[in-house]
Structure formats: C-alpha cells, structure tokens
Specification:
With about 700 residues, this protein is an alpha/beta fold. About 45% of the residues lie in helices and about 20% in strands. α1 crosses α4, α15 crosses α16 and α19 packs across α21. About 5% of the residues have low confidence.
Length: about 700
C-alpha cells in the first residue's frame, strides 16, 4: 500500500484526508500543519494518524506521495528539492479541486435533478473538466471545460454512452467498485494528458445512481516533469564526467561558496569535501588570491594563473570561467592543473625529444646555450640562413660549436625531413674523399664496387651536407666542389655523365681562408661561393657571461653519461672558470668539468675550486697577450703570422686615415675580406685620423 504524507491541515487537507480514509487504498502516514488546531490535524488525531508541524521529520525515501495543500509555492519547492527520487508530489491545485469536489458531493445529486441552472453555473465556471453519468452509463453532465478538452460539443454528447464519448473513461468501473479513484492519468484520443478523479454517486440508501469525474489538463505539467527528469539525467552524466577527470575541478555558487569538487581536486590539494563544500572560495588557497572571487566580480574568464593551494602548498595553474545562465551569473568553475605533473611531463617530453632525434641532425637552435650579445647575433644570422637555400660558411675556432650550428640550420630549414650528412674533409685522403663525395662508376679504380657507388652529394639530394674543415680540401677537390655550387651537378669518379642534385651546402672552417687564398692553397672563386653567408661563431673567451649557463647544461649531460648527481658549481670554482681564457672553447670547458666530476666523491654535489685542474688566471686571450708583448709570447708559426698580418693591416689603415676601401686596394684584398680581418683581429679604427 502506498504511503501518503499530507502537508497542510486546512480545508483542502481535511478533504484529502477524508477521501483517502474512506477509500482505504493508500496509507496516510502523517498530517502536517503549522496550526496545531487545524481541522485536518484534529481529524488525524481522531483517526490515530501521526501529526506534526514540520513535514521534514516525516519525509523519507519510503514516502510514495506527498500531497501539498498549503498553497505556498516555497513549501512546494522545498518539498520538491528534498523528496526522494521515487516520491511524487501532488500540487495544491489538485488537492483544492478534490476538496471542492467533496464539498459539492452531497449537493450534487440534488442539483442534478432539481437545480439545473445552479448546476450549469457551477459546472461551467471551472477550468476543470466535469463529466457525470447515470446508472446506465449515459452522459448526464458535461461542462464547457470538458467540451474544450475532449473536443466534442455538449449537445452531441448528452445522452450518449460514456464509452462512445470517452473510450478511455473508467466511470462505469467506478460505479461497479463503488470506490473513489484519485489522480488517475489518462491520455485522450487527441493526445491530451489529463489527471482524473472519479467518484461514485451513492444515495443515503446505499443506492448507486451514477458516477462523476473531474479532470484537469496536465500536458504542460507532464512535459515539465519529463524535462526535470532529463535534467537530472544530464546532471548525473555531468557529475560522472567531472569525477572521471584527472584535472582538479571546483565549482562555486554566485556567492563564492563551494558546491562541487571532484576526486582529483582532493588528490591534488589534499582538501576533502567537508573542508570545501559550503565554505568560501578562499578555503583552499595557501598563497595567492581567489580566482573564483575575481571571476564572480568581473564575469570574465581568467586563465593560466599560478598559485599554491592546500595544506601542502601545492603549486598549480588555475583556469576559472564564469557560469552564466540566461545572462545571470550562477557561479564559476575552476580547473586546476598540477604544476609538478606538468613540469615532469615537460622534462620527459624534452628528454624524449632528444632521444628520438635521428643521428643525421640531432641538434636544434634550442640546444645552443648562451644569451650573450655575440652568441645571439650568431644565432639570429643562422636562423636567417636556415630560411634560405644559400650556402652557409661557419667560421670560428675549434670547439666553438660549428657543427652544432650546422645541425640547427638543417633542422630549421624546409629540408629538415630529408638527409643531413656530415663530412670531415681533413679526415680522409684526397682520392678517398673525392670518391666519397662524388661517388664512382664501375671500374673507376681497383677495388671499385660492381655497379659503382653513389656519393654523399647524391645521398644528400634534397637535404643538406655539412663539410667540416673545408680549408683542408685539395685543389682538385676544390674545383669539383666549385662545379657543384655553380652548376648544381656532379660527375662521378671515372664517369662522364652529369648528375643533377639539389643539396644545401653548409661549410665550416677554423683556419684563415683569406690566408689560403693569398698563398694559393685555396681557390678564390670557391671562397666567394662558400662565403655567401658567413657566420662568425664567437670563442668562449668573448662570451664569458654564458659560462654559468653552459656549465649547468654540461653538468646535466655529464651526470647522465657518468651516472652522477652533481648539482652545480660553487662560487669559488665559477670565479676560476670565469677568469680562464679558454683556448679550447666549449670543448675544453666540457673536458675540465668532466675531469672534475670524475675525481669528486660520490657524496659531493657541488664542484668546488679544489676539484678543478690548474687553470691560468687571466682574462686576456692569447692573441691579445701576443699583441701586448710580441717578443715574449710568440710560440708558434700561425700565431706569429696572424700577429704580423694584424700589424700590417693596422699600419695600412693608419696610412689611409681609416679609409677601408683605400686600405683594401693597397693590400690587394677585397673590401669584404678586409672587414672580416678587422673584426677578427679586433682592430680599432675610431682613433685613426
């Protein structure tokens, strides 16, 4: 038997209680009214039914029906919000209708027989449909509202059998059972949904004389209920989605109080629902301002804000957006990303990126460490060169990172998905280098492979080839390379057929090509082809401000190679590194740091001054010392030649009052070559007149 809770003990509640008690089809568990002397309360006490002033103490999941007859919208909404999912609420309008029906029950029989005018006035003045039948089932009463809902005129219906008027009607069954039926849902032929209350008409002599039905159009009410059900399903689905997210999510209402968090929120912040739900939006913040409150004030989304949350002061990134429904602010939702997870993923991604790079070109511009002005200029020039197909000539001392630049230029060019081949021109003999670069035909020389062999230029077609130590090429190989650069074609050793190629040449040298031109060891025409886009890579002594950053990167690399966990360099050791002139450049710095780490104890995490080998404590370059004291510092032929060349250029510039064009003409070199030497030897011109 269904359990019913009646909220409201006034006239309507009393009528409902009487009907249910007489019908005995439902069990009234309680009657509630703020007025302890209400008629419904008194009647319930007589019938032994529990009473009270607060409906909340009686509302639970076992209650099937709540009949709300207070007439107060707030009470109806509160019951609707707190009811169980299987509890049905009958609004006060229906209860009022039943109350009205009960009032008129006793007078109805008399009115049907003797007061037709009053009958018509009552029946036709209500919005509820009313139909009455006699004991034969023929329609006796049929008001205007019934006419509107059923769609049949009153004149055509009176006297007809009820089954011919309303096939769905069960008034004849009501007469047979003699029991009142309330809140019965019926769907008419025209699709209209009604809720019907059927009452048998019984005389004082217990004689059945007919039945009466009062019904109300509930199509809109049912549609609303279906929408509410759909909304609940959507709400359940959204909650499931939110709870399955690995990102922490928090939702606050328009007042900034927490209303929803997911499990990831507790995992990241360490705060439980009890510590957040119903609490101000600032409850989870350990450092920073509440982004929820800012969003509620501005009604604008805020993204990428860093802050610390929870008792563990977890560093997070917060994105918060307002919740606006029908242009009304309802709250805000925030998504919290764990910074430690992001940093870990970034490090893993960076490590993976380094590992999966092919051996053909494994470095990019991001791998070039240094923010000094000299290095930034070189990097910008290299990036510019990467966007063009022009030949690039990398110049710099040994160990400055010329090959690193070559890799980066290839990876930043539109050839990055094609091959990148490297050739050390000084490592191979003339004949072997020529066959390796240009390939050979079958039978070109003893030991040649059958069918010949493709050269590196052919292998690198549509890609890039890096020619290191280009100044060591023989005259014959220089001539062939010049043809490649001019005609974009090669001829294999022992062959006669030209093969078209499309290769980007990146050359590098640590020697003075201009000197080679002067002594006839390097072709001038090849020099101009190679020197189309020269990039001077500064030595380490010219960018000492980069040493701390380079050291940090090298220590990380050495840790991975040697399985150590060295964290950095002490201030004392860094001063020694900064005061050394580094003739071996970055390669020497890596050697010094690696040697220091090898001889450190495993419990030591910082490189101290005593770990470093003996370094010369000077900030001047070797060339600068030679210039200052040419008699006491000349050690090798190359240094002496460079110093002599520097002195000659400076003297000629002074003779021509700093006029570079006139000086170049006097020296029989190109103006461009002169500019390069002025920059190389750091010759001051401002003092010349």
């Amino acid at each position: 038997m269904q359990e019913v809770l009646i909220v409201g003990g006034g006239k309507g509640g009393t009528a409902i209680l009487k009907i249910l008690h007489e019908a005995s089809v439902m069990k009234v568990i309680a009657v509630v009214d703020l007025n302890k002397n209400a008629s419904g309360i008194l009647l319930a006490k007589e019938l032994g039914i529990p009473v009270g002033t607060d409906w909340r103490q009686f509302l639970n999941d076992t209650v099937d029906i709540v009949i709300e007859v207070t007439g107060e919208q707030k009470v109806f909404e509160d019951i609707r919000d707190m009811r169980g999912k299987n509890t049905v609420i009958i609004p006060g309008s229906v209860a009022f209708l039943i109350s009205k029906l009960l009032e008129d029950k006793e007078d109805l029989i008399h009115q049907l027989t003797s007061e037709s005018f009053k009958r018509d006035l009552i029946f036709n003045s209500t919005d509820d449909g009313m139909v009455g039948i006699d004991d034969q089932g023929n329609v006796m009463l049929y008001n205007k509202s019934a006419e509107r809902m059923i769609g049949k005129d009153q004149e055509d219906v009176i006297g007809m059998h009820i089954s011919d008027v309303i096939p769905e009607s069960k008034l004849t069954t009501t007469m047979e059972t003699r029991r009142t039926e309330t809140n019965q849902e019926v769907v008419l032929d025209n699709g209209l949904k009604i809720i019907s209350n059927r009452i048998p008409m019984i005389t004082d002599n217990d004689e059945i004389i007919g039945a009466f039905s009062v019904f109300k159009d509930i199509t809109e009410v049912v549609n609303l209920a279906e929408e509410i059900t759909n909304l609940k399903e959507i709400q359940t689905m959204l909650e499931a989605i939110i709870h399955s997210s690995d990102d922490a999510i928090s939702v606050v209402d328009e007042e900034g109080k927490g209303i929803l968090i997911n499990p990831a929120y507790t995992r990241i912040t360490g705060l439980t629902q009890e510590e957040v739900i119903g609490k101000p939006a600032t409850a989870d913040i350990s450092e920073g301002e509440s982004i929820h409150l800012k969003v509620l004030q501005t009604r604008r989304a805020i993204r990428g804000t860093r802050m610390r949350v929870g008792p563990k002061r977890k560093e997070v990134i917060v994105n918060v957006a307002p919740i606006i429904v029908n242009n009304k602010l309802k709250g805000s939702v925030g998504v919290i990303h764990d910074m430690s997870e992001i940093q870990s993923l970034t490090q893993e991604l960076d490590r993976a990126r380094r590992i999966i790079r092919t051996l053909e070109a494994k470095y990019m511009f991001e791998d070039i460490i240094g923010d000094s002005e000299e290095m930034m200029i070189a990097v910008e020039q290299a990036k510019l060169g990467a966007k063009t197909p022009a030949t690039v000539l990398l110049r710099g001392e040994s160990g400055t990172g010329k090959e690193l630049f070559a890799h980066a230029i290839h990876n930043a060019s539109d050839r990055k998905f094609n091959k990148f081949l490297r050739v050390n021109c000084a490592a191979l003999s003339e004949n072997l280098l020529e066959s390796e670069l240009f390939g050979y035909e079958e039978g070109a020389f003893s030991g040649a492979k059958r069918g010949g062999k493709r050269g590196l230029f052919e292998e690198a077609n549509n890609g890039s080839i890096f020619l290191d130590e280009i100044g060591e090429l023989s005259a014959n190989t220089q001539a062939k390379l010049l043809r490649v650069l001019q005609e974009r074609e090669i001829v294999r050793v022992g062959g006669t057929k030209s093969i078209q190629i499309n290769v980007r040449v990146i050359a590098a040298t640590n020697v003075n090509l201009e000197k080679g031109i002067a002594d006839g060891s390097f072709r001038e025409d090849l020099y101009y082809r190679l020197n189309r886009m020269p990039i001077q890579i500064p030595p380490l002594r010219h960018r000492k401000s980069d040493i701390p950053l380079i050291s940090e990167t090298l220590i990380t690399k050495i840790n991975q190679d040697y399985g150590r966990n060295v964290e950095g360099v002490t201030e004392e050791a860094m001063n020694k590194l900064m005061n050394y002139h580094w003739p071996g450049n970055v390669r020497e710095l890596e050697n010094v740091l690696g040697r220091a780490i090898i001889f450190m104890n495993y419990n030591e995490v910082m490189i101290a001054g005593n770990h470093l080998p003996q370094l010369e404590n000077t900030s001047k370059s070797h060339l600068e010392k030679v210039a200052a004291d040419p008699s006491g510092s000349l050690k090798d032929l190359a240094t002496q030649v460079e110093q002599y060349e520097r002195n000659i250029i400076q003297k000629v510039l002074e003779q021509n009052n700093g006029n570079k064009t006139a000086a170049a003409k006097a020296l029989n070199v190109s103006v461009r070559n002169l500019y390069y030497k002025i920059e190389k030897y750091n010759i001051e011109i401002t003092s010349m007149k």
